[in-house]
């Protein structure tokens, strides 16, 4: 027969109470761990920079946003399929905005910047891509490669809209935000075509040069406001859009490049990052050709 004494009951009661106390402490510890994880996640995204890239459906957009995603939350325009999931897997919070690739559309820039402010409350870096060479018989009917005497005023207007009005619209929208913050980095992609005369492409070259000069003037106006504005001039990039300008003839295109090869998108992304990642803020008003020695 098992005899239970008062002392045994007391000890068992103490053990039960101790067990309940341990259980409570474990529950509180788990709760604190969950809360700390939530705080860490919140702090991580509060301390991450925020960047806008207006076109990520192709060109250098995917490569650039992958590089940015490690330290930036992102607003991406017209992303390629699967890109948002990929960027989120790299640690970025991502806001996608559709139908904003053409910044000559006056509604595109407000939608991009508005999405960034609504989701993240600030913008630290922006990369703007727009315009482009137009081979003969393209959809718009405008030909980049044509003698000046065969051009029309409509040809000029199309190039100016894409190469000057687009960055104008974007700068008008983003600059007040960054001036209010007292900080920010803006990168405008123009073209190496704007760095030298290009016979047979006078309208496009002129429009690109105008876009570059717009950037330099804006940079000079805000040089003491904590905002940097710079431009890169890509040319001879390996991609279907550029090869189309040479009817897909890679060898003929490579023959135009002093380095004898075409540039890769990751190379352009690395150059762009030096103007966007917040690590070098003593450079403004600069145009850097990315053209394999051509400009």
From TrEMBL:
A GO molecular-function descriptor: oxidoreductase activity
Pfam families: adh_short_C2 (PF13561)
Protein name per Swiss-Prot or TrEMBL: SDR family oxidoreductase
InterPro entries: NAD(P)-bd_dom_sf (IPR036291), SDR_DHRS6-like (IPR051122), SDR_fam (IPR002347)
Key words of the record: Oxidoreductase
Organism: Nocardioides immobilis
Ubl conjugation in keyword set: no
Family listed: Belongs to the short-chain dehydrogenases/reductases (SDR) family.
Superkingdom as given in the UniProt entry: Bacteria
Entry keyword Methyltransferase: no
Signal peptide positions (record): none
